[in-house]
Amino acid sequence: MNPSLRLTAALLLVSCSSSPPSSTCQSHLDCPTGQVCEGGACVAPSTTTDCTDGQTRPCGPDAVGACRKGTQRCVGGHFESTCTGAVQPSTEVCNAVDDDCDGEVDEGVGRTFTVDADGDGFGSNAPGAQTRVGCAAPQGFVDDRSDCDDARAQVNPSAAEVCDASGADEDCDGTANEGCSCTPGASQPCCAGRGTQTCEVVDGGTALSTCSVQPQAEVCNGVDDDCNGQPDDGATTVTGDGGVGVLDGGVANPDGTCTMGVGVCAMLGSTVCSAGTLSCTAVPGMSSAETCNTLDDDCDGQVDEAGAGLCPATGQACTSGACQCPGGQSVCNGACVALSAEVCDGVDNDCDGQVDETLTIACNADADGDGYADGTTTSQQCPNVARPQAGNCPVGFVAPAASLGADCDALNGSRYRLVSSRGDADTDGYCAGPASNDCVGTTALAGRRFVTACAATEDCNDSSASSWQLLSSRTDADGDTVCVGGASMDCVGSTPLPGRRFAASCNAVGEDCNDASLSLYRLMQTRADSDNDTYCTGATVNECVGVAAPSGRRFSANCQTPDDCNDTNGGLFRLAAVRSDGDGDTWCAGAAVTQCIGSSPSAGQRLAISCAGDDCRDTNSAATSTCVLPGAYTTVSHAQTCPNGPQNFTLITSTFCPAGFSLSSYSAQILSGLGNCTATSANTITQSCNFLEGTNCRVVGTCTAN
Questions:
Q1: Is 45 exposed, middle or buried (0-12, 13-18, 19+ CB in 10 A)?
Q2: What are phi and psi of 15, to 5 degrees?
Q3: What are the residues whose beta carbons fall under 8 Å from the beta carbon of 3, sequence distance 6 or more?
Q4: Domain span holding position 665
């Protein structure tokens, strides 16, 4: 046979002999009748069993990091393929949690922080500077590496350049003393227009003063806090004091991360600032029905709270994440029952898989024909049926009273057994009051419920179907998630009472200091700063605030030193000793007085410590310590030849009075000889001989400041 034909025939044979593919499934409920779900496919059930219905076993990943095991239930003698409640590994994110469950925390996702030795908020850019890797900056480290001198806090990229002889680069831009040529007394905007700085004379040159508004850490408030011209850029928090901020339904952390939702719904994300409002990128996860697994599956702030459906087997209770039968009971076919010796009742009492095995029954009289005995007995072989039929017992007789119970009403066929029941007036499945034995048929009496059908939780209000459980709650009248007052047990349903919040879901920010306002929720220390210049005045007080301090006040931790000496003028904030320097020559007049100034004194004044000395005339910049200059004016000299009579001579000025000075007096000065010499003007002398001796003389004058 041709090889290709042989291969084709073989393929057809395999195709014809293969069974149709089984349907996929997640649980036994997805399969047709008569099949079970094994390995994700519906197959015929095997004749052997590997578990008892209702039995559970752990499944899923080991409890490492964020991972948690789930549980699998036994249905039809086999464990379901679904692993309920398991938390699987996820992608590692920077949150101090081992998300991928490999035993390492935040590996490969942390940020690098650099040492900030001088505490000015900028990390050292020196080669070999210390660094740390993590999600949040350790003490003494920052998310920056631009400080050119980490030993001096006054040197950093946000500092103002100082004009000095040392040539230091205070603003770390690579150039020293730039912008040092300015007009003394002139002002210009700084800190992105929020403040001003003034040109001062410093060390014989000029320099701009420190800006009246200092850069702060950028927060989400619509303001350019760090003075770079861009409001809210890089803002990751809503508080300038490094605190925790409250978001709608979540929390913003100081490191820029945030959490939305509670329980298994809690998801970590990053904060995003837009138009002065902070939001979180995290989306809360989906909640599910609460199961017995030590997790808050329904995301209501409570773990394994009492309620129907926690444990799959009827009557089982949840204790520390495990389903446990009540004392004296065991699991049998998925239910908690009290096992007993086998009796003839059509029930597998000893749970051995056989019903009424090798028993002889005594048939009892049943006058009202309801199947419950109330009279004479006769012996019969016990049939393996749920209830003996005619032919097993004589007409008018039924199985023993012990199997179905003695007939509590021999004359009423609809009532025949005593069953324990409790009150359930609002028919919500939660019962109240003590149990009692009632004579009933298939259903409980009106307003009551069989004890075995009551939910595990005691009904705290049996007149309202919406209130059934006692839960711890606290007051949250303004709905900001920050609670106030002590916790109390309230009778509620699935949600807390109006104006209250389940204690487990109260925000960790602390006690709400104003539960009537959504925007006020925490106590912070503040001081007055009416002119908003970052310098504060007055005593520190505790105030109830929200994200920001009240208008006209500032968080104490953000106040600059010293105390503000004028809180009504943003340009005045410090006390300093000043003297008059009206002519701007650095020489001062008058006594020093203490005044409230800003970054520099007002025009015509100078800091006393920067005065060169006492000014003899503060209206003349040419005059400093001396206003009278004797002999500063001179002419060339003239020699007279004798004998001659008195003669007049005009002399040329040799040295004039300096600028700002005028000649106030003059006289003739004899340099040599015995003759006579008289000054008739500043440039004219009269000379005469003394016998044969003449003179050599000139005019000398005193200059006085104008």
A1: middle
A2: -60, -40
A3: none
A4: 628-705
DSSP state, residue 332: E
Q: Could you tell me where the beta strands, DSSP code E, fall in 281-351?
A: 317-319, 322-324, 330-332, 335-337
Does some domain include residue 472? no
The answer to whether position 210 is within a domain reads: no
Q: Which amino acid is at 401?
A: A
Residue 14 backbone phi and psi in degrees, to 5: -65, -45
Residue pair 577/594 in contact (Cβ under 8 Å)? The answer is yes
Beta-carbon contacts of 440 under 8 Å, excluding residues fewer than 6 positions away, are 415, 417, 418, 419, 421
Q: How many whole angstroms separate alpha carbon 595 and alpha carbon 662?
A: 36
**Tokens at residue 485, please?**
């007052």
HSE toward the beta carbon, residue 467, CA cutoff 13 A: 13
60: left (phi over 0), alpha (psi -120 to 50) or beta: left
Q: Is 91 part of any domain?
A: yes
Q: Where does 201-344 have alpha helices with state H?
A: none
Q: Taking the C-alpha atoms of 553, 556, 557 and 563 in order, what is their torsion angle to the nearest 10 degrees? A: 100
DSSP string, 463-524: T-TT--EEEEEEE-TT-SS--EEEEEEEEESSSPPTTEEEGGGS-TT---S-TT-TT--EEE
Distance (Å, whole) CA 700 – CA 647: 19
- Rounded Cα distance between 424 and 430, Å, is 6
Strand partners, 379: 362
Number of structural domains found in the chain? 3
pLDDT tens per residue across span 271-284:
888 877 888 888 88
Strands, E, within 51-106: which ranges? 56-59, 70-75, 78-79
**How is the chain split among helix, strand and coil, in percent rounded to 5?**
5, 35, 60
Domain end marker among 503, 534, 558: 558
CA distance 541 to 610: 38
**Both tokens assigned to 233:** 């850029």
Cβ 194 vs Cβ 213: under 8 Å: yes
Residue-averaged pLDDT of the chain? 81
Beta-strand pair 417-423/448-450: antiparallel
Which residues are within 8 A (CB) of 558 and not within 5 positions of it... i.e. 6 or more apart?
Answer: 216, 240, 241, 534
pTM of the model: 0.43
Helix (H/G/I), strand (E/B), else coil: 404:
helix
Q: Return the bridge partners of 653, or none.
A: 635
Q: In one letter, which amino acid is 360?
A: T
Please indicate, yes or no, if residue 70 is contained in any of the structural domains.
yes
- Kindly state the DSSP code that residue 129 receives in the 8-state scheme: -
DSSP 3-state of 380: strand
Contacts of 94 (CB under 8 A, 6+ apart): 106, 109, 110, 111, 135, 257
Looking at the chain, the number of H-run helices and the number of E-run strands are 2, 43
How far is the C-alpha of 384 from the C-alpha of 387, rounded, in Å? 9
Lowest mean pLDDT of 332-336, 515-519, 648-652, name the range: 332-336
Taking only the tens place, the pLDDT of each residue in 238-256 is 666 656 677 766 787 777 7
The 3-state DSSP class for residue 202 equals: strand
Q: Is 31 in contact with 75 (CB distance < 8 Å)?
A: no
Domain end (from 92, 107, 122) = 107
Paired tokens of 302: 């409570």
